[in-house]
Amino acid sequence: MCLCYTDLIVGLGFFVTRVEMGHRFSEFLACCWGAGQHFPVTKDNDNGIGENEDKGGTINLPQFHEYTFDELWKATSGFAVENIVSEHGEKAPNVVYKGKLANQTQIAVKRFNRSAWPDAKQFLEEARAVGQLRNERLANLLGCCCDGDEKLLVAEYMANDTLAKHLFHWEVQPMKWAMRLRVALHLAQALEYCTSKGHALYHDLNAYRVLFDNEGNARLSCFGLMKNSRNGKSYSTNLAFTPPEYMRTGRISPESVTYSFGTLLLDLVSGKHIPPSRALDLIRDRNLQVLTDSCLEGQFSNDEGTELLRLASRCLQSEPQERPNPKSLVTALIPLQKDSKVPSHVLMGIPHGVSALSLSPLGEACLRMDLTFIHEMMEKIGYRDDDGTTTELSFQMWTSQMRESLSSRMKGDAAFRQKDFKTAIESYTLFINVGIMVSPTVYARRSLCYLMSDMPEEALNDAMQAQVIYFSWYIASYLQAVALFALGREHEAQTALFEGFALEKKSNNTTK
C-alpha cells in the first residue's frame, strides 16, 4: 500500500509484517517488466501477425504464434485467480484464464496440468495443426506456449459465457427457440468446416465447449480439437453421455462426434442434460412434452420440436455408420431456422454496442473523452484503490530512498491537483524510477497527465501498467479506452470501455 510519509514513520512495525507479501509481489513485477522499463504496446502487425484467410466463413486473424511463458504471464496478470474463466475453477486439472496481450487483443489461455502432454513435440505438432484453422464458427486457436513443463494454448476470448450457462443456469431469460436452432446450425457448420480441413475428431463435445462471442453467435472451442490429457482419453463427462463404441474400444471416430452432437440437440430442446438412453425411450413412447423445455411454451410447433428430436435420434443411433455426417446435419438444420434476420445478440438479450450500456458518469466521460471530468473523479478517488499493493523495503531503503520516493510522489500529487501536468509527469516518473514502491494510482495519474499533454501512446502504456499491477481495476481499463480513442483505434477502445464497464459494475456489486 502506498502510505504517506508520517504514516510510514509510525507504522514501520506494520510495514515489516508485510515484507513477505511484498517480496512475492516484487518477484511478480520483476517477471512482468524490468526496473524502469515499460510494458510494451505492440502494433497490430507485430509478433508475426499476418492475415490467414480461407474461403467460406473464414475471418481475418493473426497467424498461429508461439508465445513465451512471460508473455502469457503478463497477459493474465500472473495467472491471477480472478482471471479464471473455466467452469471448474482453479481446482480443474487444466485451467482457462482470461488475458489481454500488449496489443489489446483479449485471449483465453488454457494452462495444462504439468503432467499432461509429456511429449512436447506432439503438443507442438497438434497445436500448430489446429492453429491453421480459421473460421467464424470457431473460437480459433491463436497460438501456444511450450516452455519446460508448461504447456499452454491461446485462443480467441469469447465474452458471453458457455451454452451450459445459458441453457442450464440462466439468470435473466431462457434461450429462445429461434436461438437454439441457430446454435445447432452454427455448431454443425463448425464441425463441417473442421471435417473439410482434416480435423473430423472433436474430443468431448458438450455444452461447456460451446461459447458465445461479442455478437452473441455460438462458437465451438478449438481446445476440443486437441487431446487434453496424458493418457489421451477423449471423454471426461458422465459415461451415460459417452458414445457406445467409445465404451467398447476407447477410441473416437467422426461418428462419435456426431453422437455427441446429438446429445447437444437434446440439451437445446430440453434445457436439461438428459442421458441419451432416457431421451430415446421418451422419443419412442412419443412422450415429447416431457422432453421439451417448459420455458419454450408457445415458441414452436409440435412439428418443429419433433423434427429436431428426430434429427437427434438419428445422431444417437447405436451403430456409428447409421449416423449422419456434419454436411448432412447442416442440410437438415437450414430449413428449420427462424427469425434469421434478427441478430443473435438481440435473441440472446446481450447488450451490444456502447449505446446499450448504462455507463456511470466516469464511463460516460471516458466515452466523450472529457479529460477535465476524469481528472476531477480521479482527484476524489485518491489512492484508496492502492490498498493491497505491497512493497518490500530494507531499513536502509526506508530511511533514504523512501524519503526521496515519497517526496516525488507528493510533488506529483500537488502538481496533479494544480493541473501542472508537465511537472506531475516529471515527479511521478522520478517516483516510479526509484522503484521501491508500486502504485497503480501513480501510473493512472501519469496516464491522464500524458493524455492532457497529447501523448496517447505513453498514456496507453501507463494505463496498461496500472492494470498489470491491479488487474481488476476499472479505472485502468477506462484510461486505456480514452488513450485508444485518442489513437483512433475505435474498435479496441470500445472493447476496453466494455471491460471497464464490467469491472466497475462488479466492483460496485462487491461493495454493496
Automatic annotation (TrEMBL):
Membrane topology summary: Lipid-anchor
Domain Protein kinase: 82-348
Catalytic reaction annotation: L-seryl-[protein] + ATP = O-phospho-L-seryl-[protein] + ADP + H(+); L-threonyl-[protein] + ATP = O-phospho-L-threonyl-[protein] + ADP + H(+)
Subcellular localization, as worded in the UniProt entry: Cell membrane
PROSITE patterns cross-referenced by the UniProt entry: PROTEIN_KINASE_DOM (PS50011)
Domain of life: Eukaryota
Gene3D superfamilies: Phosphorylase Kinase, domain 1, Tetratricopeptide repeat domain, Transferase(Phosphotransferase) domain 1
InterPro entries xref list: BSK (IPR045845), Kinase-like_dom_sf (IPR011009), Prot_kinase_dom (IPR000719), Ser-Thr/Tyr_kinase_cat_dom (IPR001245), TPR-like_helical_dom_sf (IPR011990), TPR_BSK1_C (IPR058209)
Alphabetical GO biological process terms: brassinosteroid mediated signaling pathway
Cell membrane listed as a keyword: yes
GO-annotated molecular function: ATP binding; protein serine/threonine kinase activity
Gene Ontology CC: one annotated term: plasma membrane
EC number: 2.7.11.1
UniProt-listed SUPFAM superfamilies: Protein kinase-like (PK-like), TPR-like
Family: Belongs to the protein kinase superfamily. Ser/Thr protein kinase family.
Protein name: non-specific serine/threonine protein kinase
